Amino acid sequence: MKPDPQSAPVACETCPSRPRGGLLRLGLRLSHWDYVVALAGNPNTGKSTVFNQLTGLRQHTGNWPGKTVMRAEGGFEFAGKRFKLVDLPGTYSLLATSPDEEVARNFLLFGRPDVTLAVVDATRLERNLNLVLQILEITPRVVLCLNLMDQAQRLGLQVDDRRLARDLGIPVVPVTARYREGLDALLQAVYDVATGAVVCRGYRVRHEDPELTRALEPLVARLQRAFPGLPNARWVALRLLDGDERIIEAVRTGEFSEPAPARNDAPSTPAPPVTATAT
Amino acid sequence: MLGQLAQTGAALAWAVAALAVIAAFVVLARAALARWRQGRQFRLRVRAEDALKHVYKARAAGERPTLESMAGSMQVSVNRAAQTVAGLQKADLLTLGEEGMRLTPSGERYALNVIRAHRLWEQHLAEKTGVAENEWHRRAERQEHLITPEQADSISAGLGHPTHDPHGDPIPGPRGDFPPMSDQLLSSLEPGRWARITHIEDEPEEIFAQIRAMGLAPGMQLRLLAKDPRRLRCWCDGEDHVLAPIVAANLTVQPLAEPAAAGEAARPLLLSHLEPGRRGRVVRLSPRCRGAERRRLMDLGILPGTVVRSELRSPTGGLTAYRVRDTLIALREEQAAQIQIEPLAEPAS
Amino acid sequence: MSSRGQSQREEILACAQSLRWELGAQFHEKLVESIYADAARLAARAVTRPGATPRFDLDRAIDRLVTSRRWGIPLMVLLFALVFWITIVGANYPSQFLASLLVDRLYPWLREGAAALGLPAWLRGLGIDGVYLATAWVVSVMLPPMAIFFPLFTFLEDFGYLPRVAFNLDNLFRRAGAHGKQALTMMMGFGCNAAGVTATRIIDSPRERLIAMLTNNFSLCNGRWPTQILIASLFIGALAPPYLAGLVSAAVVVGVALLGVLLSLAASWFLSRTALRGEVSTFSLELPPYRPPRLGQIIYTSLIDRTAFVLWRALVFAAPAGAVIWLVANVRVADASLAEHLIHFLDPLGFWLGLNGVILLAYLIAIPANEIVIPTVLMLTVLTTRLTGVGGGAGVMFELDNPADTLAVLRAGGWTLLTGVNLMLFSLIHNPCSTTLYTIYKESGSWKWTGVAAALPLALGFAVCFVVAQAWRWLGAG
Question: In Å, how far is A271's CA from the nearest CA of chain C?
């Protein structure tokens, strides 16, 4: 789902010198914020470039897969709202086989960000979607940043962002972060999802194994009874079946039924939602 | 003046050193004595636990445990075995009735705890360490007596609460829950049938070593080709194997209706044998590749059905870069040998 | 939460546990497979690939060249030789400039200023001769090479060449039980061991990462290059005919650096078969696409994240070391300075190692930074031999512009060719500087491994020096 071109300020996307529509980089000054945005993605997708462009900070990760970075945070202001951006370690997956993956997974699950900005490499979509689909299992409030579009063009790849948005049920924005192309549309999409102007219908992976489906049903039903309003009961059930200790612990202590971490200014009445649907 | 000072300094240094040596000696001697005392108690407990395990396993297999069989499996004299049994009776863990030795409920619980510790430790060695396969059982035999139930729980948590050990045996749950077994021995399989290996008995060690040397592991699929009283011939993992019946009796299998994957029928190629510039489709990862390494390969997108192209070879050898889902990933030769593929023709260009 | 909720939750867990028995061990794999299957399907719907055969693929062409059997290795050697050459030659001028500014100009000015202010002599000595001089020395020797080396290295990193180096060299490291990326952390170690240790983060397998950390010290860092070059030209270059002297001493220094690489591989091999035998290993190496490097980002990263970071840590350790050096030379016990007592005490050990008490003491008190070892050695030699007319007095480190003068001071201290050779060996093989040790502790989070990182090279250094000294004397006698 791409933001409506009429409402989104998509003026001159190719002039880098133009002051970006309403973006105010806050760097490390984050005394209070309206929304928390998590930045997730595979290693080597230009995730830190996006982070630096939005916050004005300079965080470095080399052209390296698997470089462990600590969780970095920064802030920006857009259209009068203050956003805290949390950069998660770059991982291939969220099945928690490495400390990096656990950090990223735990933040998405327990930190409950308002929006998750998933940065993917447009030239290696298949590999990157593996992670995006796992994120969507945890939270549907995702904006897909289709980065490195210049590289895709160089390779002659055509990426249909509208079709991808329709399939995934979330906003998809083509971006070349390096040259700041498409950042306005990206910010608008993040803003829309954060304020509730756009409601995501996140795609859910199809598990075709009948044995698995049979095992999932009773467990999901029980989870929903114990934790009403749990947005990702199926994912929690899958993790329980996989013997994930952190999740077992969270079920045992009832962590899932706690309210989301307090925000100072959560919107009480969202604008009438524009609904995106998954096929 | 200076010389005197140096001499005094040296004398002082010697005195300190001598004191340190004496102190170290005292500490070591005391530790040795304590260890000897503990060691005696420990040996008694090991014997008791081994006896419980023996009775449990024999009963589970539908056999009748005797003092002789117990002495044999524990490698002690029948006398010793009898002493141990007497102790267990006193502790109300075992009863000696008409139909031989039986475990009391608390004895059964105890035995399951020991088995749980053993299998968890084997799983731990397989998943979290680089310890060689042939050492798993020996180390676990020792460790099972040292792990408390609480420690077993935390080991289980650290491993993602595994349900089976690396030999394919189910690991009893913390409350002694145990799944039913529906498998049969390879020696009793009908010729021509397909089956999946579910368990490889790790005792006696020579036969276990022989089976491992053939490259058989739980999870592999095999087809029994022919069977006569002297030997069995089966096809597994791209190779023919000939087994003596006594060896086949150490393999537990789950019969399959038909091979799970169509590619299974064809003889797969190993990725490490793929010529540079050629493509192949992954049939599966060898069951021998386990734990963190297996999950890493899967996270990188190397899964059954994935098309892989061999692209670059390291000039010093031993490493090849493959194009997997639009990414160049370098794998070492021994890793690539864990991945079975079917070669694909080059797309017409 | 009510107890009803509690029992409800326990029931969920029990239900999950019993379902797990039914699902069996293949479950995780089925899960991963279905996610990837969906990802592949969605990607295929969204992406249209060019129908015709792809045009000239630049990435593939570069990869063919830099990993080719014939050109891969020579190209790599050439590239790194170039990087080191630029670093060594380029660092010379700013180093001299900084030294003349901080040591030749600012230092006397500070001394006079302090005297004019009427500060007591001990305070002036401790503060200016000790702390200031040590930090000034570290800055002028350490800063310029790092400020040149790190941007060049980061350039190659950003471009994407470094993973190809790991790819080319992996086999060497595989045989030593290590990871190919260790080639890069080793290379980084030639700039600075502390930075090399931090760089081991790129190795994601815990076992191989630890090996890389523990053996990084065998890379001759830029704090030790000046020592090697000085001693090589004084003692070994001097043996060759004058027109060959420069070449011979350069060859000797390169030989020492290569010995370090060999030792690093040998130590990796040893560790992977002893202390780290049971640790799990997960190898993976992705070769990312080449990307045009971003110059601004490179300069920022290498100067702020790496150079300034390392420099700051070095200064934090060098400042107190300066104070200790000054105190050791100036605190008098009975009729001699503390330094002289210690040197006499260490002399017998030094003799067995083919070194002397001065060198051992210099290594002991200059552990924070290898850069100040030679100035400390010179100062201590003058102190013990009671030479007059050289140096700036007790506790004041110095260097001499003229090599012949330096040689004269060292000869007066009883140095022979053996002392020179063994100093070069010991400078290569000894415990890491305290900055590096601290970094190892930070990165590994374990005192045990930090201890191993210090003890292993130190023991090896003692052993090598001892063997060389005994063999030398035996051959000399025979």
Answer: 30
Tokens of A35: 């929304």
Is the torsion defined by CA of C102, C106, C107, C110 positive or negative? negative
Q: Judge whether C173 is closer than 8 Å to chain B, CB to CB.
A: no
Contact across the interface for B327 and A124, Cβ inside 8 Å: yes
Host H or E run for residue A118: strand A115-121
Tokens for C265?
Answer: 């591989």
Verify whether the Cβ–Cβ distance B299 to A97 is below 8 Å. yes
Please judge whether C38 and A206 are an interchain contact, meaning their C-beta atoms are less than 8 angstroms apart: yes
Averaged pLDDT of chain A: 76
Question: Which chain A positions have a beta carbon within 8 Å of C159's beta carbon?
Answer: 63
Q: What CA–CA distance (Å, rounded) separates C360 from C342?
A: 10
Give me the amino acid identity at C422.
N
Fold of the CATH domain B184-265:
SH3 type barrels. (2.30.30)
CB of A83 within 8 A of CB of A37?
A: yes
Q: For residue C56, count CB atoms less than 10 angstroms from its CB and return exposed for 0-12, middle for 13-18, buried for 19 or more.
A: exposed
Mean pLDDT by 10 residues, chain C (478 residues): 71 80 73 88 86 68 87 88 82 84 85 84 82 83 82 84 89 87 87 85 81 91 83 83 82 88 91 74 81 78 74 79 84 80 86 87 81 83 76 72 80 86 90 87 87 91 91 76
Three-state DSSP class for residue C111: helix
| Domain spans of chain B, in order of start | 13-103, 184-265, 269-344
What is d(CA C22, CA A107) in angstroms, rounded to the nearest whole number?
31
Do the domains B269-344 and B184-265 match in fold?
Answer: yes
Contact B160 A245 (CB under 8 A): yes
Q: State the smallest CA–CA distance between residue A93 and chain B in angstroms.
A: 6
B318/C174 Cβ within 8 A: yes
Collect all residues with Cβ–Cβ distance below 8 Å to B326 and sequence separation of at least 6: A123, A124, A126, A127
Residue-wise pLDDT tens digits, A12-41: 333 333 344 567 776 666 667 888 999 999
Sequence letter at residue C448: K
3-state secondary structure of C47: strand
For A56-113, the pLDDT digits (tens) are 766 655 444 444 445 577 888 888 888 888 888 888 888 866 777 888 888 888 888 8
The alpha carbon of residue C191 and the mean position of all alpha carbons in its chain are separated, in whole angstroms, by 6
- The torsion of the CA quartet A45, A49, A52, A58, rounded to 10 degrees, works out to 110
Residues A14 and A181 sit within 8 Å (Cβ to Cβ): yes
Q: Average pLDDT for residues A227-233, to the nearest whole number?
A: 80
Distance CA A216, CA A221 (A): 9
Instruction: Name which of A144-153, A196-205, C215-224, C270-279 the model is least confident about.
Output: C270-279
Largest CA distance in chain A: 57
> Looking at the domain covering B13-103, what would its CATH class be?
mainly alpha
Whole-number pLDDT of residue C2? 56
The superfamily (CATH) of domain B269-344 is Ferrous iron transport protein A (FeoA) (2.30.30.90)
Question: What pLDDT shows up at residue A269?
Answer: 36
Beta carbons within 10 angstroms of residue C391's beta carbon: 20
Reported as half-sphere exposure (CB side, CA atoms, 13 A), residue C43 has a value of 25
Please tell me the distance from the alpha carbon of residue B135 to that of residue B75, in angstroms, as a whole number. Answer: 19
- Percent of chain B scored above 90 by pLDDT? 3
Query: In which band, very low, low, confident or very high, does the pLDDT at A267 lie, cut at 50, 70 and 90?
Result: very low
pLDDT band for position A4 (50/70/90)? very low
H-state helical runs in chain A: 47-55, 99-106, 125-138, 149-154, 161-168, 183-195, 210-226, 233-241, 245-253
CB distance B196 to B219 below 8 Å:
yes
